[in-house]
Amino acid sequence: MLTAPGQTDTRIAQLRARRVWDSRGRPTLEAEVTLADGSTGRAMAPAGASRGSREALELRDGGTRLGGLDVTLAVAGVNGEIAALLRGMDAADQAGIDAAMIARDGTPAKARLGGNAIVATSLAVLQAAAAARGLPLWQHLAAGDPVSLPLPEIQIFGGGAHAGRRVDIQDFMVMPLGAASFAQALEMTAEVYGAAGALMQAAGKRQGVADEGGYWPVFAANDEALGMLVRAIEHAGLHPGRDMAISLDIAASEFGEGGRYRLGLETRELDTAQLIDLLGGWLDAYPIVSIEDPLAEDDEAGMVEFTRRFGHRVQIIGDDYLVTAAARIDHAAALPACNCALIKPNQAGTVSETRAALAAARRAGWATVISARSGETEDVAIAHLAVGWNAGQLKVGSFARSERMAKWNECLRIEEALGARARFAGRAALAID
Ligand code: PGA
Ligand code: ZN
Predict the structure, then answer these.
(1) What is the per-residue pLDDT for 1?
(2) Is residue 286 in a domain?
(3) Which domain holds residue 342?
(4) Last residue of some domain: 134, 163, 187?
(5) Which residue owns the Cα nearest ligand 1 atom 2?
(6) pTM of the model
């Protein structure tokens, strides 16, 4: 490829990876790409704890050292095989680069080179391509199309796999529907997070923070958390439902299989119909606007039934069930099951597949939520994906811990950079009216 004067040479000159550490103190990898023109891009792989069984697989060393979680094999794969493959390729050709890595890996779930190695490389290439154009990532991705600051989905209490199963439901979150801007959305959230902490403290139910920074609660029942959340919204001077609504990630695959659900805080084992009734009761009693993975990933009939009963009035997000896979979203949309897709780049494994999943959700007329993982880093790329792809919603955990706040704060910078052109996706981003 020849480059004319004033043009950048976006061929990949160097790719390397290093081991870094995530927000749980576990090893992960960072990829760093340098282009022929000197532009660079960096990205780190996040890690989930309540993963869908069809996600791209992480390559971990195994054995006893570091709990088997070390990534020396994944790092070596980037520095060796993947670097040799990509050297000389054009970083502006994201689709070509991602396809090359997928083909070289050769397994259905990226098990050989590792979804962690591939996603970090894919995102680093994307960052380098943006840097070569001298553009912030969101602007590079938008390619002139309309953008918006996402409606945030912010965790107040953590549970499930992120809090030693102290409470069954994984995420008790809020969504600032009454905000007029992203900045205002965060200010409202700060008041609720503070109020919730004070109420928990006063009730003797605050034990620290869970993996994503929400309070680690001591509740006797799952719906006690919902009542506490409503009170926190009121204590913050906000109207529950109108100004600040509730959003739940049930993460039902964590406690259910084969249509049987074992909730530690409920007294009985529930079947699919009983779990749907329990959740339906919560939808009637509390200002809940969004619910993720209400049934387990293997309970498609349950997802269809839940969507039939409640899809007209609540956003139903598929996470473990859809695993950021365009084909699974197409399949679910035809049933229909869900009306919104959670979009996690490391579930898909490449930027291109992540983008394809987003496009599939959009084709279906669904809403989309760009999402972090419970194991995160200071990498803020997903904030840019949410804005640049105009995804509408962003979920990165709570309102504490800097691996979370880094993403919220990055959105503030983008909103400021957009100035008068900034548009907050707000309530209209939900899958319901
Ligand atoms: P994770 O879960 O622990 O797999 O990142 C987050 C989620 O279920 O949304
Ligand atoms: Zn989830």
Answers:
(1) 47
(2) yes
(3) 151-429
(4) 134
(5) 50
(6) 0.97
